[in-house]
Design goal:
Layout lengths: L4 H8 L6 E6 L5 E7 L2 H8 L10 H9 L2 E6 L3 H15 L14 E5 L8 E4 L8 E6 L2 H14 L19 H4 L13 H15 L4 H16 L3 H18 L18 H12 L7 E10 L2 E11 L2 E2 L5 E4 L8 H23 L4 H4 L22 H4 L1 H7 L10 E5 L2 H13 L7 E5 L4 E3 L7 E2 L5 H30 L11 H11 L2 H6 L2 H5 L6 H16 L2
Parallel strand pairs: 7-11, 11-12
Antiparallel strand pairs: 1-2, 1-3, 4-5, 4-6, 7-8, 8-9, 8-10, 12-13, 13-14
Helix pairs in contact: 5-9, 8-9, 10-16, 11-15
Length: 544
């Protein structure tokens, strides 16, 4: 299958820089994560026609499944390795083999509160008051550099946490002058702490002097034709540079969401591209899900500072919409969500009477099933002026941006409800999935951003998460409906007796074929109850 136009366009825009690429299938699921020293060269190789003729069946299957890809540029190859490992652990792509275990990159640890501090290697970073350096992409380079640091700063390399003098009177490290041996009193603890502090500064990047010494010694050995020693110094210099090179520490990523390496940067770009009045610290996204007009539900997801805020997710079951009408479903959802926020804000400010008239249920969830329909003469419209005036009340509950999954129709329905509630000042957008077009109120033409734009990726994350949350709720309702048995309609039956019947007969169909005597053998049923159940099932089989 040749690369699509979208993939070819993205390939032509890739930079010749180090980074990480994520291959995604048509459902947006990450199926492979890789690193590259040159992103354009590496990613383009996957879609070259010659790769289609290769013998590697796994690679061919991967290329067949790729529908889109995403890349993230980093500063150097070491950062690419660290980010690749983190992303593989987060997304568990099915085509990756390496980094799928729970093994983490090495860290260097020193606890200055120990009696005699020492540098040790670890893979975990608990809150224990110790100082940590890393993580490091190359464990071999780190181990060799640590050996060099111990010799340069005369630090201990023995294992015991607190060595005792009798055991270390004849310390090999002390005899070789590798360690100043504070455990046997050669130096005081204060003097030894100064050595440790100097090593910490060295690991923080103050290693230029030593790098210059190693380079000069390497050139001297090469000039003297001592190439073996020069090669050893070259490798040592390379290990030192790899270990002390600055790398970013990447935050934990939300599982199964499109990847966000720098949400703050995406927020700033979104504010600039869409000319928002302020940085959208809180974004609420809405989506509708139904199956041919049945099980109509809606979802609302909340993103705080560019990251999912799952504690503030909400879901709605439609109560005023019949049939398949996404516009009406979106209107009901917006109305119920922000009517409640206004009502709660009004109660907090002592003006709750202005909001009590708005048509929402007073129960504790926006998804309250008894929300009354609203028509042209409801109190909400009669008091719209009060709502508009009260919208000036500052409240932390209102979002900085609302995102609607859909085009003009869904956006207009949502805008009409916000206007009735006096909340037209809240920025609102619609994101249409087919061409990733951004619709804004009052604009006839949509805005199209580059697919590599961080602003668009942020909107896609909100939209995709609202879509996932709505579909999950819809699936839960369908499964619940399917799992409901006709036995639930039988008066007086409980879960235990229903489970006992199904355990003995396996299905309602086989239960219908059973005799009264067979039903009476089930624990919890006597002759009378069995006869009543048999009559109930026979009546249901005639008039289902």
């Amino acid at each position: 299958m040749p690369a699509s136009d979208q993939i070819r366009n993205k390939l032509s825009q890739l930079p010749h820089k180090s980074g990480v690429y994520l291959m995604k299938d048509r459902f947006g699921t990450v199926i492979y994560v890789g690193k590259a020293r040159d992103l354009r060269k590496r990613v383009s190789q996957y879609f070259h026609p010659s790769r289609r003729q290769g013998w590697d069946l796994k690679l061919n299957a991967l290329i067949e499944a790729v529908h889109d890809f995403d890349v993230h540029v980093v500063r150097n190859e070491a950062e690419a390795i660290l980010l690749e490992g983190k992303l593989i652990k987060e997304f568990h792509p099915r085509y990756n083999v390496s980094f799928r275990d729970d093994k983490r990159f090495l860290l260097l640890k020193v606890n200055l509160n120990d009696p005699i501090p020492r540098f040790t290697l670890t893979r975990l970073k608990p809150e224990d008051g110790a100082r940590y350096f890393g993580p490091f992409a190359s464990s071999g380079a780190l181990r060799r550099t640590l050996t060099m640091i111990r010799r340069k700063f005369n630090l201990r390399g023995c294992r015991p946490l607190t060595p005792t003098a009798p055991d270390y009177t004849h310390c090999l490290y002390a005899n070789l002058k590798y360690c100043t041996a504070p455990c046997i009193g050669n130096v005081s603890r204060e003097q030894y702490l100064l050595q440790i502090q100097a090593a910490c500064e060295f690991l923080d990047g103050q290693s230029q002097e030593m790098e210059a010494e190693l380079e000069a010694e390497m050139k001297k050995a090469s000039a003297a034709l001592d190439f073996e020693h020069a090669a050893q110094l070259r490798d040592l210099l390379r290990d030192l540079q790899r270990t002390t090179k600055k790398t970013n520490k990447f935050a934990r990523l939300p599982y199964k969401l499109p990847v966000a390496i720098d949400p703050e940067r995406d927020l700033a770009e979104l504010t600039r591209k869409l000319k928002l009045p302020r940085l959208p610290q809180r974004i609420e996204g809405f989506d509708i899900s139904n199956i041919s007009g049945t099980f109509a539900v809606a979802s609302m997801v909340s993103f705080k500072q560019g990251r999912p805020d799952r504690a503030n997710y909400r879901r709605f079951k439609m109560t005023t919409v019949t049939g398949q009408d996404d516009f009406a479903c979106m209107a009901e959802t917006i109305r119920r969500r922000y009517s409640r926020l206004l009502r709660e804000s009004g109660e907090e400010k002592g003006v709750g009477t202005e909001y009590r008239s708005i048509g929402v249920s007073g129960k504790g969830s926006e998804a309250a099933p008894n929300t009354p329909p609203r028509d042209s003469d409801t109190p909400a419209r009669r008091h719209s002026s009060n709502s508009k005036a009260s919208a000036k009340i500052k409240t932390q509950n209102l979002p900085d941006l609302i995102l609607i999954d859909g085009g003009k129709g869904q956006l207009n329905a949502a805008c009409a409800e916000l206007a009735e509630l006096g909340l037209s000042h809240i920025p609102i957008l619609g994101l249409a999935k087919e061409f990733e077009e951004i619709y804004t109120p009052g604009e006839s033409e949509p805005l199209r951003l580059s697919h590599d734009s961080g602003a668009l990726k942020l909107l896609q994350r909100v939209r995709d998460e609202s879509h996932r949350f709505a579909n999950t709720y819809n699936a839960q309702l369908r499964l619940k409906k399917i799992s409901e048995s006709i036995l639930d309609e039988f008066p007086g039956i409980g879960e235990q007796r229903k489970a006992a019947l199904l355990k003995k007969f396996g299905s309602v169909h086989r239960l219908r074929l059973a005799t009264v005597e067979q039903i009476a053998e089930v624990p919890g049923f006597g002759g009378k109850a069995a006869a009543e159940l048999k009559a109930f099932l026979e009546a249901r089989s005639v008039n289902p």
